[in-house]
Design a protein that fits this description.
The complex is a heterodimer of chains A (250) and B (426).
Chain A: E1 2-7, H1 13-25, E2 30-34, H2 45-56, H3 61-71, E3 77-80, H4 83-89, H5 91-101, E4 105-107, H6 113-125, E5 129-131, E6 133-134, H7 140-149, E7 154-157, H8 182-194, E8 200-203, H9 209-217, E9 222-225, H10 227-232, H11 236-245
Parallel strand pairs in A: 1-2, 1-9, 2-3, 3-4, 4-5, 6-7, 7-8, 8-9
Chain B: E1 9-10, E2 13-14, H1 23-38, H2 40-54, E3 60-62, H3 64-70, E4 74-79, H4 89-103, E5 107-112, H5 116-128, E6 131-137, H6 138-143, H7 145-153, E7 157-161, H8 168-181, E8 186-188, H9 199-207, H10 209-231, H11 248-251, E9 262-266, H12 271-277, H13 281-286, E10 290-298, H14 308-311, E11 313-317, E12 320-324, H15 349-356, E13 360-366, H16 367-381, H17 387-395, E14 406-411, H18 419-425
Parallel strand pairs in B: 4-14, 5-6, 5-8, 6-7, 9-10, 9-14, 10-13
Antiparallel strand pairs in B: 1-2, 3-4, 11-12
Helix pairs in contact in B: 2-4, 3-16, 4-5, 4-9, 5-7, 9-12, 10-12, 16-17
Classes of the chains: A alpha/beta (250), B alpha/beta (426).
């Protein structure tokens, strides 16, 4: 399976509507519709810039719901949003609007499982999904709690770090960024798989067909691409041809 | 021995709103801290460096001219500006650097606004042989050039942050991103009572020595004066009669010290304020002591400012829930203050709790008022205060006190770093 992240409103609202339609036409399995935030702690420079540009043009959650509705897209879509834009909007209202426009849930990168229980129950009661993120630093006990609470899949962050291709992140490079071990990722994947049959998605740093394939070899059920597709959304032709180049039999 | 975990929330504020990648490091830090505070060797080491390296206790100075100028009660200044590196920030930096060593981490990342926390962290890293990276907003690098040079002299790498408003908020975001990327090898020394749990608690605990010393120093002043009185010794010249004529009713507090009527501190993230307030929370609850925190009103509360509690609403920034300057859609707004150290759109979660519980009063002071107070202290007392602390000083203009009342003001830092900026706006 393939999941694609785009930042809503980047490079502009119309482009986002078109990008959504392209993703549906290409048959991607999941769309992560990024809600721009002023302080995206888990994002590298590309998505930071996209969020900044989008906000500068006045994008907000009301407009995001509207543009999604007008796209007519039925592909499974979740909001990818930091906690504060949803909190400020009000979670009751977020849920009502998601149901109204056909968005099926949310993924909140700064909401760890410890803070997520109440919200997960609220989403579940409304028939929506709250996707949680697991990390390769997570302890086994945490992985189990994340696995149990996350629906309909678990999002495993591929490495210690923020979103983006390796080449974008040189300014954040410290002692360990260069020696990420795929071994650690495999270990965490094995543990998650041992808990049951819930699909596992891998994201962060996936920017090519080769990396998508490698992700499946590591045992992932879904590969998620973000930074690369945000970059390409500046030119929808390139965006479309990149998406179709990824068509992969799983 | 306590095995209890620290409380993650102050009322509804605080928490841990960070990427999962950081969660194990936060748990590890909490466990390490809980062990450390029970470990006599750690405490002895911390006390040793605070005494012999930082120069604690910092004096509690009776500002006689300033008191006379206002014509009300006695004003005491807690001289955190006299600490090594010139501000209260070193208390926390030394404590956390010792924690980093205990964690076995040799790499340190920090954010800085005015540069005081950056300098303090760079200093602690030089002292304990740790590698130090400091993220600092490009705008702040411009207005705090001397501190940038200091950090570099101390062996730290200062990394300019060009995103957003290029100030403390963005430096903090970038420091957290760096930490997310290097969390296995690196300890993040956060500079204020902000961030995800357990940081607000740890930073407050490393700063509460300020208020603890005030209690002791006030008690010493009281004992000395009553001692003099009892022994019939001659009143030392220049000492106020209050020191030798004890008014039991006025002086009596539960722990036998002088009663402090008001404690004033400026607040950005809130660490110097938490440090001096925390030991006085019982007195605040019983109504004996009034705690007043002063936010930065910048150009005015209707314009650009940094008054998170006065004008913000609860939200989540940098890992915890607290009052926050934000728009209706939860986008964090750019703060403004002439003082880089207060130029932050959030505030520590414990402050939000203390505000809602009516235990601390939050006021705001403009850039202009702070500058006037800065000049006044220079002239009246021969002390050049930091622009941050000048906000607390400016509130003295508004505070009406009686002759027999006592005000303690946390002079959190010295103003050498601000001279260029003040010359430029003059």
């Amino acid at each position: 399976m393939l999941g694609i992240y785009i930042t809503a409103g980047y490079p502009n609202a119309d482009a986002t509507i078109q990008a959504l339609r392209i993703l549906e036409k290409a048959g991607v399995d999941l769309i992560e519709l990024g809600v721009p935030f002023s302080d995206p702690l888990a994002d590298g420079p590309v998505i930071q810039k996209a969020a900044f540009e989008s906000l500068k043009q006045g994008m907000n959650l009301d407009k995001i719901f509207d543009l999604f509705k007008s796209s007519g897209v039925k592909t499974k879509t979740v909001l990818f949003s930091y906690y504060n834009p949803l909190f400020a909007y009000g979670f009751d209202k977020v849920i009502a609007k998601c149901k109204e426009v056909g968005i099926q849930g949310a993924l909140i990168p700064d909401l760890p499982v410890d803070e997520a229980e109440e919200l997960a129950a609220q989403f579940k009661a409304a028939g929506l999904d709250l996707v949680l993120l697991a990390a390769i630093t997570s302890t086994e006990e945490r992985l189990k709690r994340i696995y149990d609470l996350s629906n309909p899949f678990v999002y495993l962050v591929s490495r210690v770090g923020v979103t983006g291709s390796d080449s974008d992140l040189s300014s954040l490079r410290g002692a360990e960024a260069t020696k990420q071990s795929s071994r650690q990722l495999e270990d965490v994947m094995k543990k998650l798989k041992s808990f049951g049959n819930k699909p596992i998605a891998i994201g962060f740093g996936i920017d090519s067909k080769e990396k998508v394939d490698a992700t499946f070899k590591q045992g992932a059920d879904m590969a998620i691409i973000g930074t690369k597709t945000v970059k390409l959304s500046e030119n929808l032709k390139e965006f479309e041809s990149f998406i179709s180049s990824l068509k992969t039999k799983v | 021995m306590t095995t209890l975990k620290l409380a993650k929330y102050f009322g509804e504020y605080g928490g841990q709103f960070v990427p999962e990648t950081l969660m194990p490091a936060l748990a590890e830090l909490e466990a390490c801290y809980l062990e450390a505070i029970e470990d006599k060797e750690f405490q002895d080491q911390l006390s040793y460096y605070l005494k012999n390296y930082v120069g604690r206790p910092s004096p509690l100075y009776y500002a006689e001219s300033l008191s006379k100028h206002y014509g009300g009660g006695k004003i005491y200044l807690k001289r955190e500006d006299l600490n090594h590196t010139g501000a209260h920030k070193i208390n926390n930096a030394i404590g956390q650097a010792l924690l980093a060593k205990r964690l076995g981490k040799k790499l340190i990342v920090a954010e800085t606004g005015a540069g005081q926390h950056g300098v303090a962290t760079a200093t602690a890293c030089a002292l304990f042989d740790l590698e130090c990276k400091v993220f600092m907003g490009a705008e702040d690098i411009k207005r705090q050039a001397p501190n940038v040079y200091r950090m570099e002299l101390l062996g730290a790498e200062v990394i300019p942050v060009e995103s957003g408003s290029k100030t403390l908020k963005d430096a903090t975001s970038e420091a957290i991103r760096y930490w997310v990327t290097n969390v296995i090898s690196t300890h993040y020394i956060i500079g204020s009572t902000v961030g995800p749990h357990p940081y607000p608690t740890i930073v407050r605990d490393f700063q509460k020595i300020i208020g603890e010393e005030v209690k002791q120093q006030i008690a010493e002043i009281y004992n000395q004066s009553s001692g003099l009185h009892m022994q019939g010794l001659q009143e030392p010249a220049g000492l106020d009669p209050k020191f030798v004529t004890t008014n039991e009713e006025l002086h009596n507090t539960a722990d036998g010290g002088l009663r402090v009527d008001y404690i004033l501190a400026c607040v950005g993230g809130g660490s110097n304020a938490m440090g001096i307030f925390y030991p006085y929370l019982a007195e605040a609850k019983s109504g004996v002591t009034k705690l007043i925190a002063i936010e930065a009103a910048g150009e005015g509360l209707d314009g650009k400012h940094a008054a998170s509690i006065s004008k913000g609403k609860p939200g989540v920034l940098h890992g915890s829930k607290s009052y926050l300057l934000q728009d209706d859609y939860g986008q964090v707004q750019e703060a403004h203050s002439i003082s880089a150290g207060l130029d932050y759109p959030g505030i520590g979660p414990e402050h939000s709790f203390l505000h809602d519980a009516n235990l601390v009063e939050y006021q705001a002071i403009t850039d202009k008022e702070a500058l006037a107070a800065f000049r006044l202290l220079c002239k009246l007392e021969g002390i050049i205060p930091a622009l941050e602390s000048s906000h607390a000083l400016a509130y003295l203009e508004k505070l009406k006190t009686n002759k027999d009342e006592i005000v303690v003001l946390n002079l959190s830092g010295r103003g050498d770093k601000d001279l260029q900026q003040i010359r430029d706006v003059s």
